[in-house]
């Protein structure tokens, strides 16, 4: 037995077994890797251990792993000096690579969520329009089996206001949940959503109505995001009327926004305010579709209770919803197209002000808990 092989076996034995469980779930459940498939593992940030586990797990499944590693601080420097021609060529190269992939696993980490906060807005628009939208929205999302997740680190622990060790325990509780059981519990809600016309959302600073008739809905149970736990649709594009006031912070282009409120007329955001009203309106003016809604979703991961300024976690908060300006997903499509897709979260549990959701004038959820008997399987005590 070679020295290298002995070292490899010892090194693997030292790994946190929860990481190996997560890697297996991502490869076997989320992306369902098949023999001969090309899988891109996209690692943003300094952590490497999960990427190694994923390479090994993809190979065990008969797939061919490809790895991209990058860093937000390097991206910042690049964007500060990038020209439209440069971003266009970068996009073209990565589009060609993405077209060769059957699967994509994106790992997001890094020490500073605000790393891109001082990149000028015109540079961020170029990045979104010329790179992110064609590479990810148009190819990765539409053409591959994909999943994206965060990796636990000290920065995330700070955002969650937890010790690093306590946050790691929380992270693996959330991410290694029994998602097949959750998927079964979603079925009654999906059936109800698919036959619903009018939705009304009421809460502090919020009285919003819209139609979802004929749009359809999609279960999210560990196949696209980890952590997961949501069921989404989209409003008919011009049906949204009223006001929504979100009660969680959100990072966009490296800037943290608080106290976000939108007023709609005939589907369009006609008034937008926040802790940075000028900048939020710049984002909404990216293109015509950015002022219309592309997604409406209900969140119900039983382990995620409080926001931590990380969309992948916050949009799954138990008793939450998100109402998303920008691009619609083709699986539940209202026709809205945009370089923007910004998931903004409203929590309706009592400690966050409460609230109600009505489907066709029938109360389905009050203060974050489903009240119809057939939906109670999605309440936290039933999902843990």
From TrEMBL:
GO terms for biological process: proteolysis. It comes from the Bacteria. The keyword Metal-binding applies. Its cofactor is Mg(2+); Zn(2+); Co(2+). Keywords: Aminopeptidase, Hydrolase, Metal-binding, Metalloprotease, Protease. GO terms for molecular function: aminopeptidase activity; metal ion binding; metallopeptidase activity. Belongs to the peptidase M29 family. PANTHER family: AMINOPEPTIDASE, BLL6088 PROTEIN. This is Aminopeptidase. It comes from Paenibacillus pasadenensis.
């Amino acid at each position: 037995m070679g020295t290298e092989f002995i070292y490899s076996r010892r090194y693997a034995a030292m790994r946190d077994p929860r990481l190996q469980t997560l890697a297996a779930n991502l490869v076997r459940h989320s992306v369902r890797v098949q023999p001969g498939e090309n899988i891109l593992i996209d690692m943003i940030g300094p952590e490497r251990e999960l990427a190694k586990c994923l390479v090994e797990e993809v190979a065990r499944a008969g797939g061919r792993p490809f790895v991209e590693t990058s860093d937000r601080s390097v991206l910042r420097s690049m964007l500060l000096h990038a020209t439209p021609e440069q971003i266009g060529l970068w996009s073209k190269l990565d589009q060609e690579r993405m077209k060769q992939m059957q699967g994509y696993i994106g790992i997001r980490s890094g020490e500073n969520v605000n790393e891109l906060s001082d990149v000028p807005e015109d540079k961020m628009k170029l990045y979104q329009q010329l790179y992110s939208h064609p590479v990810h929205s148009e190819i990765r999302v539409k053409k591959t089996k994909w999943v994206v997740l965060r990796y636990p680190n000290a920065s995330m622990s700070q955002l969650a206001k937890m010790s690093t060790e306590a946050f790691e325990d929380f992270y693996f509780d959330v991410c290694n949940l029994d998602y097949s059981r959750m998927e079964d519990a979603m079925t009654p809600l999906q059936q109800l959503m698919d036959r619903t016309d009018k939705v009304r959302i009421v809460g502090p600073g919020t009285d919003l109505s819209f139609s979802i008739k004929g749009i359809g809905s999609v279960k999210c149970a560990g196949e696209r995001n980890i952590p997961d736990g949501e069921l989404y649709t989209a409003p008919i594009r011009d049906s949204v009327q009223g006001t929504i006031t979100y009660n969680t912070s959100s990072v966009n282009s490296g800037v943290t926004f608080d106290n976000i409120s939108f007023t709609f007329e005939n589907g369009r955001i006609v008034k937008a305010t926040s802790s940075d009203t000028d900048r939020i309106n710049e984002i909404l003016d990216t293109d015509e579709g950015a002022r219309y809604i592309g997604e409406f979703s209900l969140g119900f991961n039983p382990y995620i209770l409080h926001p931590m300024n990380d969309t992948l976690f916050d949009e799954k908060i138990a008793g939450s919803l998100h109402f998303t300006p920008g691009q619609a997903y083709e699986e539940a499509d209202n026709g809205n197209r945009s370089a923007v897709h910004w998931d903004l979260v409203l929590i309706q549990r009592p400690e966050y002000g409460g609230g109600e959701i009505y489907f066709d004038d029938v109360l389905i959820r009050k203060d974050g808990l489903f009240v119809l008997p057939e939906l109670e399987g999605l309440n936290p005590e039933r999902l843990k």
